[in-house]
Amino acid sequence: MAQTGISRSTDISANLARLRTRIATAAQAAGRDAAAITLIAVSKFHPAEQMLPALALGQLDFGENRVQEAQGKWPPLCAQWPDCRLHLIGPLQTNKVRQALALFDAIHTLDREKLARLLADEIQAAGKMPDLFIQINIGQEPQKAGLPPGDADAFIARCRGEFGLNIQGLMCIPPAGQDAAPHFARLAEIAARNGLAQLSMGMSDDFELAIRHGATHVRVGSALFGARG
Ligand SMILES: *Cc1c(COP(=O)(O)O)cnc(C)c1O
Q1: What's the whole-model pTM score?
Q2: Could you tell me the distance, in angstroms and rounded to a whole number, from the CA of residue 42 to the centre of ligand 1?
């Protein structure tokens, strides 16, 4: 989208303040503690210097969807802000697992056995356990990543048992152009019956709805950094 000169797209400090207020309001309306909701600032396609106003305001959780892009952007920022936490929210290829583990504190896109097996091996070698979310293809869309909802219970059990992975929660991206509410509700249901406390769901257009359905991690990009070029 073209730059319009409207401040929404570029005033990251103001956008962040607004987002925090909206998250707090949504949490309160849902009878939830806003402190239990992590805002992940999705910084993909935005250059490192755009992170500075957010970091300066204490935003420490950031999401990237490509390992390579994150590697080029984050090491200097992480050196300056050692408390910052990086979340991988895009697909993880098996040949990038080692690099991903070196850089990311959380991986939201565990969605297949081969990846679980490799992650287990590499985590052991690295001696560092990231937070892990299993991505569920909640709308069962053929083109979308994620595990079919019907396979979730068995996969979670195998990840915990056979692979010894510390699964924190579930992640989903509901189908575009549909009411996300039933999808968020279904993800929450799968998590609850498997004793998983964390839900990574909700983006710029639907994070308040996601909070109503129990989201603990909302992944917000364009509402914070503006449209991606
Ligand atoms: C890009 C992306 C987001 C952020 O989307 P916005 O609509 O810009 O907030 C969230 N989650 C995932 C997995 C993404 O790829």
Answers
A1: 0.95
A2: 6
Q: What is the 3-state secondary structure (H, E, C) of the chain?
A: CCCCCCHHHCCHHHHHHHHHHHHHHHHHHCCCCHHHCEEEEECCCCCHHHHHHHHHCCCCEEEECCHHHHHHHHHHHHHHCCCCEEEECCCCCHHHHHHHHHHCCEEEEECCHHHHHHHHHHHHHHCCCCEEEEEECCCCCCCCCCECHHHHHHHHHHHHCCCCCCEEEEEECCCCCCCCHHHHHHHHHHHHHCCCCEEECCCCCCHHHHHHCCCCEEEECHHHHCCCC
Substitution site in 109, 204, 219, 228 for ligand 1 pocket (most atoms within 8 Å of beta carbon): 219
Which long-range contacts (C-beta less than 8 Å, at least 24 apart) are formed by 203-210?
203/42, 203/173, 206/174, 206/180, 207/22, 207/23, 207/26, 208/22, 208/23, 208/25, 208/26, 209/180, 209/181, 209/184, 210/180, 210/184
> Confidence class of residue 9 from pLDDT cuts 50, 70 and 90?
very low
Name all residues whose Cβ lies below 6 A of ligand 1.
42, 44, 65, 89-90, 173, 203-205, 219-223
Task: Return the residue matching tokens 């490799």.
Answer: 118
pLDDT digits (tens, 9 = 90+) for 109-152: 999 999 999 999 999 999 989 999 999 999 999 999 999 999 99
Task: Calculate how far, in angstroms, residue 131's C-alpha sits from the geometric centre of ligand 1.
Answer: 19
